[in-house]
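Moderator note: this is an archived Q&A kept for reference. The question asked for a predicted structure of one protein chain; the sequence and the answer are reproduced below.
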Amino acid sequence: MQAADFLSKGGPAGKMKTLIVYMSSHGCTERAAGLLGGKLPGETIQVNLKKDRVPHLGDFDAIIVGGSIHAGRIQGKVRKFCKKNMDRLLQKKLGLFICCMEQGESAKRQFEEAFPEELRNHASASGFFGGEFDFDKMNFFQRKIVKKVAGIEESVSRFNGEAVAAFAEKIGL
């Protein structure tokens, strides 16, 4: 191991600590966070804002924040986490991602609305990982909305594992 490698990894190879903070309603974003965590070097901790307590951000070398888009917006807890921790996030290596059913310019617009410009500009990597409509995990009301708004009658997945792998490479940990 070269001295530069030692320093860039925060110590001996594999000792870098990364926090993946996300919110998952029906499992797609949780799947993305798990896949991403498995592709990053060092120790990776995953925190679902829906059910887990967020550890002290100062303990991590890098922070990745993600969420899913519902009715055109990212979950409120993700938005609140970013706002509350803006200063700390701007001091860290940062990655941002969304899971959504939109593609192209529509996905880009949803990403821009999901995260503050200051964070987007600071991020080393940005990702759009596709999305899923899993009717088995939705309640009656949610299924009804998806059928009416999206015109989708059954479960469908547009999850993009290759985009997750590309994000892991791009963030450069």
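Archived answer notes: Strands lie at 17-22, 43-48, 62-70, 73-74, 93-99, 125-128, 132-133, 156-157.
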